[in-house]
Design the sequence.
């Protein structure tokens, strides 16, 4: 077994990594426009994230969370893959956990999967409505200390738990 010996000058410190963390866009992507996707991707690039993950929700998950009718999962996922190819950026990923499961996936399970697979720190990019739904879950206080939220717009009404943790979230454009 050959060993490669490297010489470095005294006091050398490797350069600090420029990019870190993961921005997860957690949404159904039913009404999300290409412009909104571009704004989210620009936010990921501006804040220098290592990964930008698009996490489309399965129909069953959307039905349980919002009771809205949505297109089938594969159609929405196909649209995201097409948008990703058009962008031509390698740090964008479309997560397919819900496509593999083919059923309702609780937010806790999705977040556990994301924290196992992608590099930290974690930022969840959500709409104000989704943020209020997330705040309504009993596990919200457990997760909000492990990740931060980035809201796509300023919320009209704020859930009390979301207001309590105001220091853990911000709105795109307010930086």
Sequence:
């Amino acid at each position: 077994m050959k060993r490669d010996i490297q010489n470095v000058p005294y006091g050398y410190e490797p350069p600090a990594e420029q990019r870190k963390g993961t921005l997860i866009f957690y949404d159904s992507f039913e009404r999300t426009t290409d412009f909104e996707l571009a704004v989210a991707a620009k936010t990921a690039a501006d804040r220098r994230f290592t990964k930008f993950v698009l996490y489309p929700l399965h129909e069953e998950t959307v039905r349980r969370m919002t009771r809205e009718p949505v297109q089938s999962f594969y159609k929405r996922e196909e649209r995201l893959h097409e948008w990703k190819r058009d962008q031509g950026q390698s740090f964008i990923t479309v997560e397919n956990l819900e496509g593999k499961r083919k059923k309702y996936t609780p937010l806790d399970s999705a977040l556990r999967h994301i924290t196992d697979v992608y590099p930290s720190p974690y930022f969840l990019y959500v709409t104000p409505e989704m943020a209020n739904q997330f705040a309504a879950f009993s596990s919200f206080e457990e997760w909000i200390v492990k990740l931060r939220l980035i809201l796509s717009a300023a919320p009209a009404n704020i859930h009390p738990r979301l207001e309590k943790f105001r220091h853990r979230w911000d709105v795109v454009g307010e930086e």
Q: What stands out?
A: DSSP finds eight helices and six strands in the chain. The chain has one domain: 22-171. The domain at 22-171 is CATH 3.40.50.620 (Rossmann fold). The helical segments are 34-46, 59-66, 73-87, 97-101, 107-117, 128-136, 140-144, 160-164.
